[in-house]
Amino acid sequence: MIELYESQRAMRNMRRAAMQRGVVAILDVGSSKVACLVLRFDGTDPSDDGIGSLAGQSGFRVIGAATTRSRGVCFGEVQDMGATERAIRTAVQAAQKMAGIRVDHVIAAFSGAEPRSYGLAGKSDVLGTTVDEQDVARVLSACDVPDFGPGREVLHAQPVNFVLDHRSGLIDPRGQIGNELGCDMHMLTVEAQAIQNLAHCVKRCDLELAGLASSAYVSGISALVEDEQELGAACIDMGGGATGVSIFIKKHMIYADSVRMGGDHVTRDISQGLKVSMATAERIKTFYGGLVATGMDDREMIEIGGDTGDWEHDRRTVSRAELIGIMRPRVEEILEEVRVQLDAAGFDHLPSQQIVLTGGASQIPGLDGLASKILGQQVRLGRPLRVHGLPQAATGPGFATAVGLCLFAAHPQDEWWDFEIPVDRLPARSLKRAVQWFRDNW
C-alpha cells in the first residue's frame, strides 16, 4: 500500500509543479482519436476547497488544442505501442505549436481496461473534540480493501460520504464536533497492463505523467449539470472502441464500468454489410446514418461510391432504410449491455434516474429516442460544459472526456492517497502491486 501512496502522490506533486509553472497538457487517448489540450493556469490552485468537491471552471484557460486520428488503440487500450506513440506525439506537438509553449507534464484519460467498482466502508473514533485531517486519514485507513485479484490496480479511491455520530450525508466533516466518524468510499480498479502500456507510451514521448483518470468519470464531470450530479444520473460515454458508464449522486461517482463496443463497431458493420472500405463506411454513417426508419427512407437512395475501378461496383446505391437496418441492431446491442450494467448497479433505486448520452457516437440521429425505449428512463444528449478558450470545433459531445479532464486537472477530487494515512493502521491485505508501473518507469 505504501507503493500506492508513493506513486499517486508523486503524480499529485508533479501536477502541482506543473500548475505552478502555469501550463499542463490534457491527453485523451481514445480508439478513434487522440485529443490534446494545453491549459494555462492563472496561478491559483483551487484543490484545497474541501473533500470531493467537483470542478468549477475558474483558474485555467485552453491555449492550444489538436486532434489526430488514433492509431494502435483498440477497445480503449493500447495495442500497438509504436503507432500510439506517433499519434500522441502528433497531437501534442500540434497543440504545443498552437499554444506557442512547450509542455512537459500531461494528465491522461483512457477508457476500457475492464473497470470494476467497489464500495468500501470504515469507522474510527475521533481522538479530539473536533474532526481534523488525521481523523479523516484514520477512517479512510479503516476501510477494508477488497481482494481485487492480481493484475489489477487502483485508479480512483474517493470518499463519497461521511457519517459523524449517525449524521450521514456529510461532504467534509473537518472542523465538526463528534465522537465516531464513518466513511463510505468508492474504489475503481482497472487492468494493470492497460495502465502500464499507456504510461510507457507517454514516457516514450518524453513527457511526464502527472495524473490518470477514467474517461467514464471525467465525461460525467463535463456532461452532467450540477443538479444531475447531485440528485443522481448516469453518463453513457459512447466512444469509438468502448462505451463508458458512470453513475453520480451527491456530486460523487459511485459506479463505473464499460462496454467493449462503440461507434467503430457500427462503422465496421456498415463496411461488411455494404462491402466498402472503413473510410467510406464512416462517411456514409456520418452523412446518412440514423436509427429510426420512416416511409421516406425506402425512396432515399445513397450513392456508395468507391475507387475499385469496376464501374458497376462503384456506381452502386443503397436505400437509407437498408443502412438503418444495418446500424440499428448494433446500437441496440450496445444499449442492452448498458442496461444490464445499470441494473446491476442498482440505478433504479436512485431518487433521480436521468441518463445523459455523450461521446462521438452519441450523435447518431434518433439515438436518444431508441435509448429511452431500451433503458426506460429519461434520456437527453449531453454536450461538455464550456471552458475558457476552448475552440468551437472542440465543443461537441466527442470532446466530453477532454473537457472533463481539464476540470479534473484544475480541481481533482480528493482521493485516498491525499491524506497522511498512518502506517500502523494499514489494512491487512497488501496493495503492494498497486500502481507498480509508476515506480518502475522512473
UniProtKB/TrEMBL annotation:
Tell me if Ribonucleoprotein is a UniProt keyword of this record. no
Protein name as catalogued: Cell division protein FtsA
**One cellular component term from this protein's GO annotations in UniProt:** cytoplasmic side of plasma membrane
Please report the organism this UniProt entry assigns to the protein.
Mameliella alba
* Known function: Cell division protein that is involved in the assembly of the Z ring. May serve as a membrane anchor for the Z ring.
UniProt cross-references to NCBIfam families, sorted A to Z: ftsA
User: Keyword annotations for this protein?
Assistant: Cell cycle, Cell division, Cell membrane, Membrane
What is the annotated quaternary arrangement, including any partners? Self-interacts. Interacts with FtsZ.
